[in-house]
Amino acid sequence: MTGNQRIHTQAEPYKIKVVEPIKMTTIEYRSKCIEEAGYNTFLLRSEDVYIDLLTDSGTSAMSDNQWAGMMLGDEAYAGSRNFYELEKAVRDVYGFKYIVPTHQGRGAEHIMSQILINKGDYVPGNMFFTTTRLHQELAGGKFVDVIVDEAHIPSNEFPFKGNVDMDKMQKLVDDVGADKIPYVSLEGCVNMAGGQPFSMANLQDLKEFCDKHNILIMLDATRMIENSYFIQQREKGYGHKSVAQILREICDLSDGCAMSSKKDHLVNIGGFLAMNDEEFFRKAKAMVVVYEGLHTYGGMAGRDMEAVARGIREATETDDHVAARIRQTQYLGNRLKDEGVPIILPIGSHAVFLDAKAILPHVDQDEYPAQRLAAELYVESGVRSMERGNVSSGRDPETGKNRRPNLELVRLTIPRRVYTNLHMDVAAEGVFAMMERRNSIKGLKFTYEPEMLRFFQGRFEPVDLV
Ligand SMILES: *Cc1c(COP(=O)(O)O)cnc(C)c1O
After folding, report:
1. Model-level pTM greater than 0.85?
2. DSSP state, 101?
3. CA-angle at 346, arms to 251 and 453, nearest 5°
4. C-alpha 104 – ligand 1 centre gap (Å)
5. What does the DSSP 8-state code read for residue 253?
6. Which among 6, 71, 154, 393 counts the fewest CB atoms within 10 Å?
7. What pLDDT, in 10s, does the model give residues 85-105?
8. Which domains does the chain have, with CATH numbers?
9. How many CB atoms lie within 10 A of CB 137?
10. What is the DSSP string of 137-159?
11. How far apart are CA 247 and CA 258, in angstroms?
12. Which pLDDT tens digit goes with each residue over 110-138?
């Protein structure tokens, strides 16, 4: 902010000190690349990508302060100084008592699921996330979607599509009994719903319900800073509070969190599990040493923990960072919306999601329209996006059938502090160009289908080739 009411443009709260050149390629070259990658954008080489909107995970630009912290890595096996910096940052900002570092979010999900879930338990959540649900299932649990119905309708503009539907919670308790529900998994800026926040009022209702039934609330805090910003912007009574205050209020209503620092914390690797219960902490410490590393590094180098500690503070010290970050997502989203491209509304926190069912209504969901659309966008523009639909949802473990989720999406995800709005313009024009030939775009079929998390390594060929 300039502090001058007559200046309306809000620019980034940073300037650029180091740059990384990127390669421009041709349509012909990219057609070859995507074919070699089995029409899976995860299998492209990054050097063949012009603008990389695959994910906001681990792709942030670190600050000079974070890089300086990397030089202060204390690479002691045990008791690294950087661990204590990290622990202090989590306690100060999130307010949880205990922290167990892990190499990234799924490391924390693994430990949390194994400790809290018993075979035959049910784990309600505000929509699934790929790795989160898989760890719940591997621990013998069954995920139950309790997000509000609005979240499943791309064009519905409800401002808190991340909310938990309390009737669905009540129904689950009635059906299976509260003692079969160890915790609710509550995600901020729900990724699979399009980066949609929950409201504080909803969390307060959930807390009351869970206290009554003796159910824990475990946050998926991956994008909780961004969720806090939306509460500030959209929820009555929060406009005057800082993002840091709102974040703290959320954490105070919960029992702990699994965190992928690769998102909100502006680092390339890292994560942790945090909680207030001592017994849970003791169990998590015993497990982390088996799967991640000693409880004072959990798979991270000392320098990585220092970068996370500094990233936590940078992302929450003022609201300027998160405001600029979400402003850029809104910029790209509004460009697409203004041209009539079907996207998920409201525009979310970290990504803009194309509605592939609306763009390719002629392609059956079992021919993976979003997967094909992501491939075509790359060929068209050199912009890499990813599928979030039938491929990502996987098969139902009981029936073996595709889950065919309501949302069949292509996600254009925006790394933090990496691209300018001119890059966003190129991405938007790539989508416009693809829209012009959408009627001739067909589907895909698997040539290799991995059993778990198939979207990462699966390979495809176009149905129009055979
Ligand atoms: C990325 C992510 C995870 C998993 O974290 P990793 O660091 O990739 O292991 C969990 N939940 C959500 C919502 C995420 O976006």
Report:
1. yes
2. E
3. 70
4. 8
5. T
6. 6
7. 999 999 999 999 999 999 999
8. 27-56+320-465 (3.90.1150.10), 64-316 (3.40.640.10)
9. 16
10. HHTT-EEEE-B-GGGG-TT---T
11. 15
12. 999 999 999 999 999 999 999 999 999 99
**Ligand 1 in contact with 454 (CB < 6 A)?**
no
Which atom of ligand 1 sits closest to the CA of residue 191? Answer: 13
Closest CA to 51 of 430, 314, 351, 355: 430
What is the CB-side half-sphere exposure of residue 245 using CA atoms within 13 A?
Answer: 7
3-state DSSP assignment of residue 19: coil
Q: Which residues are tagged catalytic?
A: 77, 129-130, 220, 263, 388, 455
- The finding on whether 187 has its CB within 6 A of some atom of ligand 1 is yes
**349 CB within 6 A, ligand 1:** no
CA 221 to chain centre: 9
Q: Which whole-number Å values give the CA distances from 374 to 279, 442, 444, in the listed order?
A: 45, 12, 12
Q: Residue of the nearest CA to atom 5 in ligand 1?
A: 105
Ligand 1 neighbour 105 (Cβ under 6 A): yes
Pocket flag, ligand 1, residue 162 (CB < 6 Å): no
Instruction: Take atom 14 of ligand 1 and give the residue whose Cα is closest.
Output: 222
Can you give the length of the chain in residues?
466
